[in-house]
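@channel anyone free to eyeball this complex?
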Amino acid sequence: MKARQSEAEAVLEISDLKVTFHTYAGDVKALNGVDLSVRKGEVLGLVGESGCGKSVTSLAVAGLLPPNAELVGGKILLGGADLLHISKEDLRKKRLTELAMVFQDPMTYLNPVLTVGSQIMEIITQEPRVFLPALVGNRIAEIDATGKNDGELAEEKQKLLEISKAGRAGRRDVERLARAYVVSVLRSVRLPLPEKILQMFPFELSGGMRQRVMIAMALVRKPRVLLADEMTTALDVTVQAQILQLLRELRNEIDASIVLITHDLAVVAEVCDRVAVMYAGNIVEVADVEELFVNPLHPYTRGLLGSIPRVDSASPQQTSIGGSVPNLIFPPPGCRFNPRCPKAFERCPLTKPNLIETKPGHFVACFLYGE
Amino acid sequence: MAEKPGPRSSGGRWADARYMLHLFRQNPIVLAGGVISVGSVLIALLSPLIVSSSYWNQIFPSSSLCWNNPIIDWHIANAFNCGGSVYPLGTDLYGRGLLQMIVVAIPVDLLIAFEVVASALIIGTVFGGVAAYLGGVVDEIILRVTDIFLAVPGILLAIVLLVVLGRTIPVLTAAVLITWWPFYVRLARAQVLSEKEKLYVERLRSSGAGGTRILFRHIIPNTIYPLLIQGTLDIGSVILTVSALMFIGLTPDPKYPELGNLAKQGIQYIFTAPWLIIFPGVTLLIISVGFNLLGDGIRDVFDPRLRR
Amino acid sequence: MNSSYLMETKNLTKWFPQRGGLLNRAQTYLKAVDGVTVGVGKGETLGLVGESGCGKTTLGRTVMRLTEATGGGVSFEGTDISKLNRRELKPFRRKMQMVFQDPYASLDPRQNVLSALTEPMRIHHVVGSGREAKEFSRELLEKVGLSPDHLSRFPHEFSGGQRQRIAVAIALAAKPSFIVLDEPTSSLDVSVQAQVLRLLQSLKVELGLTYLFISHNLAVVRQMCDRTAVMYLGRIVEYAPTRQIFENPKHPYTVALLSSVPIPDPRKRSELAVLKGDVPSAVNIPSGCRFRTRCRYATERCALAPPPLVEVEEGHWVECLYDIDFIQGSKVELRI
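replying in thread with the prediction:
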């Protein structure tokens, strides 16, 4: 299965994002000028080890940073608007319809005392007007799919067309339509017996099913960008395989771009089109997935790829990266990888390297490849 | 894998204390409480220097000058002299300067309170910790005994003990202690119960460490903070309890320098000499509020982190 | 049973009663470990793989006697240790040590490194004086790749990988011969993982240790272990020399597990074989073969009785009624 080439238009563009956390131990310069663009319809993998800033990046995009975080600079453009400089109200609207997040541990992100159905429906019933086209469209599609055109269904279809023209509907209609819509979304994430799932509580579902519910909650909004933050990390490997397979199937059915944030390079290899590698608050390499694995340029990427144990070969890993992740309160000057880099030279501690395009589509931030 | 760098997680012997100091600077209530409590302790420690030895001698029976005088003029006009001293807050029924008496009474109260709280802490920690760690029958027995003591209303028990065993300071201390220790047993037990499930305890067991070592050298030092917080809070409450008992008359000596006892003198003279009851009362209020605020503040600082 | 095993279990079970009802009596049992017979030879690394809930961690803890078995036995160096009391167990405790998964939680935050290292030495009287203890602590730190000036530091001053090294050093302080490693690198970053695994390997050779390596990460197990046992719902469904498990697996669960693991090579993308459903709970274990509810090769016979353990080739044991050709999908009944 080859990776899909996607169109070059960017739906999400992060430029020179800098975030600092003010803690009592000092200022943690978590993001040091992150540049990332997500193209329409692609699955972009954002990889890095713990402390590299990948989660911080996604939280910054979603506007979910904690109070002690300071946005020192940069821009986040989603559909043209800079998320960092719009009003709270506009941000909320954007988060509702254009941006969705799926997190690592569904058990802590789902309300344990509400049924799954009420939690998903809540998203819709809070702002019914925004979702009305989707609700109506879904129901009309269902009616059309039955192929029948007799009295009751035709009447309903007429009513739906009127609702869609008027732009609003009565509460009971909204609930009925919302329920049908939610059921269809649950079905699209391959959950069996979706009507039953609506009545169940999170603790009654297994880990894999809960994660699918989280994905459904994200898809309900028909987002432009879906941020999946360590979505499969907490799952068993067989369940992870199911979710990854689901992701592969879904991407052909929805037109959202997916940003898959993970520390697991194998997951990235299985589902992503392009990959961005992060280290200590910077993007150090971006390339198409095959290109990255076959021809990694940045010394960190090379070290990382070399240290992954393989299940399909018996040979031990060749390399490992010496030292440990830097303390971001006192980050190393210049290129933040330079203390651990086997190929560091005099230029490295002087300034931070920017991303340069060495080949079409392959970007590296390393002085070995130019300025 | 925690990624966001947040405040440093607890570790080391002094990390908690350092973090606490940092947050003190940001929290005015805690600061106020801290100032008051530390202030009162300072007064207590320095009182021998503040007041003349004649007042200080009152705690230790010996003959002295002024307080032997019959009841005399008690206006705040402070024109009255007694052996050359001045009475800014007036005098009490026995002709002693009220301010000086209060300064002498503060260490007495604080001492009793510290004794009660410290003993309750130690007893509670040991029994509660052992109950939680061993579980089973031992746990049940200790819990039931604790329940019995909790069921009896504290002040009543204290009064009965004082009446029966005599109104002396040691009995007073013991009586209050008996009503106080069950809370610490409960608290310590809850702490140890949750701590003993932690991974490092299991690791210690796999290293071959025995129960005593694990409980006393590892678990208890890690769980001491909530107990200390409770203790700080309780100092204020104990002082109030002791004063209340003295106030209703269970004193060893009507002239005993203790805040509640001093207030008691003013019951009959509320309208003619209100300062007799106001000043000791206000002092009691300030001190207990001070320790309460301190304890509350520390708890606010620590609670979310303790839950981790 | 082979008496050359350093540690072996015989039909070990650990059931957790699920209390309920009016009188809070045990209604059902969570059968975390349900009859495990396995042995680890001196100087080898036995891998124990499985997903969450399969019982591998419970097995490790039961072998260490951190929790008491409900049935069966464990022996160490030929002696049955499952019934010994605390005093009799102590000499064995010294020889069997454990390293845990979470490097952040497995160290007492109030204990500095020196104190943590010398504690097992004192408990087991490994060295004579305090000075010897300090000297030995320095040696241990160097062996695990840390510098001796770390002795006065506290756990929170170290990174995850360093803490795990300290945990290994503490385990070595008692001079054991057998170490149970429970997911030792699962909480660590990939680059650190490689360092720690290499350390474990070199220590094993240098000190002549024997390891029980518990992990859910098949790739790591493939690298580290001489023999591997695959666990499912409390039983070992297949065990063999590691190479056999990975190149010629015979149990459907092993096959499913292997094909679920994502491969870090985009050129080798294939259908991630999807095993339907989720792991059933160990409270309601399916009758007969416990894997049959998710097995695509299951037949009615599989529900009748638990399958026997069959040696399909030298040293390669499987618990399955059938000899399945996973490529063609055909199966042949195994002769017992």
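from a first look: The longest strand of chain A covers residues 10-23.
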